[in-house]
Amino acid sequence: MALPETLGALRQSPHGASERQRRSVKDEMRANLIDRLRSGGPLFEGVLGYEDTVMPQVVNAILSRHNFILLGLRGQAKSRILRALTSLLDPEMPIVAGSEVNDDPFAPISKYARNLIDEAGDDTPVAWVGRDNRYIEKLATPDVTIADLIGDLDPIKAARGGHLLGDELTIHYGMLPRANRGIFALNELPDLAGKVQVGLFNVMQEGDVQIKGYPVRLELDVLLCFTANPEDYTARGKIITPLKDRIGSEIQTHYPESVELGMSITRQEAWTERDAARVRVPEIVAEVIERIAFEARTDRRIDRRSGVSQRMPITVTENVISNAERRAIVCSEPEAVPRLSDIYAALSAITGKIELEYEGELVGGATIARELIRRAADATFEARAGGADTDTLVMYFDTGSALQVSDDAVAPVALEALRTVPGLMELVHTTGLATRDDVAGTVAGCELVLEALVARRKISRTEGGEYGRAVPEQRRRPRNDAYGEGFA
Fold it and tell me: N or C: less crowded end of the chain, CB within 10 Å?
């Protein structure tokens, strides 16, 4: 059915007759949320791990018609949650055509819309705005001004239109008025200058804005949402107390609480579909990648206030796949299957995602990244094959034997080299790290076992990827998981 294009047609349509079109945006979102809760559908698509923690708080905030803030470290899907709020808006909304502030045809707030309706009456043109266009997002930076958020008087507009400078028609509207009857999201709120934060008071409490001291009053209808990183409170700025008092709900976000959940998020977000070769990521490789982030979040050499973003395992996965893809292209393999050695080729995706404390700076990001990989491999091996007997493998290397498998070796060649280690293949297959008919998966499983032994300091690994006898001094050195000291 065609949507009405004039005010008169809108009055006669179901859209005009229904009170749904005249409710506030918070009431609109509340009603649509209630419908969704009754239907039992997912609240927001693509947001995993918050079903029992964050989402109930978001639901309560919307049902309470609160402005709210999401407080959490980087990479915790705060912006994604805010952008998903648009799904709770109506599919389309009527406005006075040409309005910069989404004027309701039945209750206009701007002088432009009021004048147009007075002149044209029922012939006033009506436009329709989709839900995605009712969302405005701004990253708070110290140079953001009141004029950016609220608006300013435009002398050029006044001169061209022959208006007095204090006339409403001379206003250049900021982002907040343009978000009228919609959602305005402000990321990293503490970075906003305190005097600009003051400018939000009236919007949040009285629902209006005033511009340049002239008696111009716009009664805005907007849901205000914010994000903040706890680090910002001390590192760059703070949220002023009166503004915090006006924010209805403060909702804490968090990182995935289990490795399995983290893997699901990474699997959803990482770019894995490549056109050069078919990609298959063994579960043990995906788990090691995810555990790198978990290990980093507990390492005292890494700044916990800054956090370790969930973007780390996502970008590491993409780099690991790319290294396997490169090998498949060069060696004309039909399938790109990452293995543990490919994770070392993704060090740049790890070092760029961690902020080091003083102790970490002394050691270096690349060294810490290698230690994280080995600790993650050890944790994965323990979770999947804990208690397995590795004495035969260690004895092989203790006799002076060494093993090196080129990163560019195809899976069958790498497997033949790994067969020289007594008991390694049998261990991988009996513990279920890989099946006997999966050559590439078996290579990945063998490398997992070797990396776990390196982490336990039972064997050593050079930066060139050669496995050999453990250095005696390393064996005697006490293990410190928090710092990772003593890893070869």
Answer: N
- Tokens coding 107: 């209750």
**The domain containing residue 213 runs over which residues?**
7-252
> Are residues 281 and 232 part of one domain?
no
Domain edge (last residue) among 252, 267, 298: 252
CATH number, domain with residue 133:
3.40.50.300
* Same domain (yes/no): 164, 305: no
Claim to verify: residue 217 and residue 275 sit in the same structural domain? no
291 and 371 belong to one structural domain: yes
Is the same domain home to 19 and 45?
yes
The pTM of the full predicted model, rounded to 2 decimals, is: 0.86
Q: Which two tokens stand for residue 72?
A: 């959490």
Identify whether residues 194 and 281 lie together within a single domain.
Answer: no
- On whether residue 2 sits in a domain, the answer given is no
Residue 398 belongs to some domain of the structure: yes
User: Cα separation of 53 and 254, whole Å?
Assistant: 9
Shared domain check, 276 and 221? no
pLDDT at 394: 94
Could you tell me the mean pLDDT of each successive run of 10 residues in the chain, 488 residues long? 86 69 87 92 85 94 95 91 94 92 91 92 93 93 87 73 69 88 93 87 76 74 91 63 90 94 95 92 97 95 89 96 95 93 94 89 92 96 92 93 90 94 94 94 96 94 89 54 43
Q: Are residues 310 and 420 in the same domain?
A: yes
Q: Is the residue at 425 inside a domain?
A: yes
| Count: domains in the chain | 2
Domain closes at, from 215, 237, 252: 252
Q: What SS3 string covers the chain?
A: CCCCCEHHHHHHCHHHHCHHHHCCHHHHHHHHHHHHHHHCCCCCCCCCCCCCCHHHHHHHHHHCCCCEEEECCCCCCHHHHHHHHHHHCCCEEEEECCCCCCCECCECCCHHHHHHHHHHHHHCEEEEEEHHHHEEEEECCCCCCHHHHCEEECHHHHHHHCCCCCCHHHEEECHHHHCCCEEEEEECHHHCCHHHHHCCHHHHHCCEECCCCCCCCEECCEEEEEEECCCHHHHCCCCCHHHHHHCCEEEECCCCCCHHHHHHHHHHHCCCCCCCCEECCCHHHHHHHHHHHHHHCCCCCECCCCCCCCHHHHHHHHHHHHHHHHHHHHCCCCEECCCHHHHHCCHHHHHCCCCECHHHHHHCHHHHHHHHHHHHHHHHHHHHHCCCCCHHHHHHHHCCCCEECCCCCCHHHHHHHHCCCCCHHHHHHHCCCCCCCCHHHHHHHHHHHHHHHHHCCCEEECCCCEEEECCHHHHHCCCECCCCECCC
